């Protein structure tokens, strides 16, 4: 909260410059048609940029996940 100020109503004001500089997180998906990687954010149109296919698969993590069962 470096650039925050309280206004008269007791609400916090945030600089618009800081809001614009933040990038939306993008998730990598694999196209079901051509198999190429596509990065999509929350507001993106779900369509492959290479072939136009509309079915995607979420990319899996490469590292091994191991859970301890009780």
Q: Output the strand order for the largest sheet.
A: 4-3-5
Number of helices: 1
- N-to-C terminal Cα separation, in Å? 41 Å
Might you state the CATH topology name of the domain at 23-60?
Answer: Rubrerythrin, domain 2
Q: Helical amount among residues, as a percent range?
A: under 10%
CATH-defined superfamily of the domain at 23-60: RNA polymerase ii, chain L
Q: Which runs of at least 5 residues are low in confidence (pLDDT < 50)?
A: none
User: What general outline do the C-alpha atoms trace?
Assistant: flat
The CATH class label of the domain at 23-60 is: Mainly Beta
Structural class comes to mainly beta
As a percent range, the share of strand residues is 25-35%
Q: Estimate the mean pLDDT confidence.
A: 80
Q: What does the largest sheet look like? A: 3 strands, antiparallel
Written as H for each helix and E for each strand, in order along the chain, the element string is: EEHEEE
Strand element count: 5
Key traits:
70 residues, mainly beta, Rubrerythrin, domain 2, three-stranded antiparallel beta sheet, two-stranded antiparallel sheet, 26% strand, transcription
Provide an overview of this structure.
The chain has 70 residues and is mainly beta. It has a domain at 23-60: Rubrerythrin, domain 2 (Single Sheet). The protein is built from one helix and five strands; from the N terminus they run ββαβββ. The mean pLDDT is 80.
Write the layout of secondary structure elements.
Elements: E1 4-6, E2 12-14, H1 16-21, E3 27-31, E4 37-40, E5 56-58
Antiparallel strand pairs: 1-2, 3-4, 3-5
């Amino acid at each position: 909260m470096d650039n925050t100020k309280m206004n008269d109503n007791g609400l916090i004001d945030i600089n618009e410059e800081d809001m614009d500089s933040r990038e939306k997180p993008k998730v990598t998906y694999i196209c079901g048609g051509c198999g190429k990687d596509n990065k999509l954010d929350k507001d993106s149109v779900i369509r492959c940029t290479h072939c136009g296919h509309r079915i995607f698969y979420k990319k899996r993590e490469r590292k091994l996940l191991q859970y301890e069962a009780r």
